Amino acid sequence: MQQTQIDALGDQLYDALTGGRMLAPLTEQHPDMTVDDAYAVQQRLMARRLGAGEKVVGKKIGVTSQAVMDMLGVYQPDFGWLTDAMVYNEGEAIPMQRLIQPKAEGEIAFVLKKTLQGPGVTVADVLAATEGVMACFEIVDSRIRDWKIKIADTVADNASCGVFVLGDRLVDPRDVDLGTCGMVLEKNGDIVATGAGAAALGHPANAVAWLANTLGALGIALEAGEVVLSGSLGIMIPVQAGDNLRVTIGGIGGCSVRFI
Q1: CB 3.0 to 4.6 Å from 163: which of 49, 86, 144, 211, for a disulfide?
Q2: Is the pTM of this model over 0.90?
Q3: Separate counts of helices (H) and strands (E) for the chain
Q4: Integer Cα distance of 218 and 215 in angstroms
């Protein structure tokens, strides 16, 4: 794709984000769009956000679980950027006017104490570089109408990231089996999703290693102090005003959020 097309699509996504509007799938406008093109559009979108004063605080990995792959019809992981404008704290209320068509995912967040940069990052490297893990919600939100996305659509749209909520407890990753820890997600008191750490590319630290190596090929590091969302452990749950959600992950802790 030409740079002018890439910039135009990034600007369309930024305007949709800030205006609370949906777009037709980008892959309908440009059927020949590649994943590399989509990451270039993502960079334009993020340049607009950072230019407006947002600051990068971490990265996210998307489409890591079979459940989400099946829901979206997208069958490879992707990544996006987290900024300070996306952060909510445990128990805080998220106003629905900030979002367009949100869905909640229960995840494990990694807080890094050392910088990781591929190639060659292993699970052991990830665990050694991690200050702690915590339960979290990623509230995914697509600017593409009705979630009619292909891989290039979600990549361009910053991996469909909306906002995220960090839990109330930071745990040493060596004190919990991240592969087998169970997740329970409750919505308004009812269990609506379950999963386990292994849903994220077999092990959440595998997902973080994949991200470090993928970004390393682009000359980008996972920086000390950043938060990395390692991917959904179950299905995505649609939310609306009035909903109260809680996710609990065995050995790690919980995270709650409400929508107004």
Answers
A1: 86
A2: yes
A3: 7, 13
A4: 5
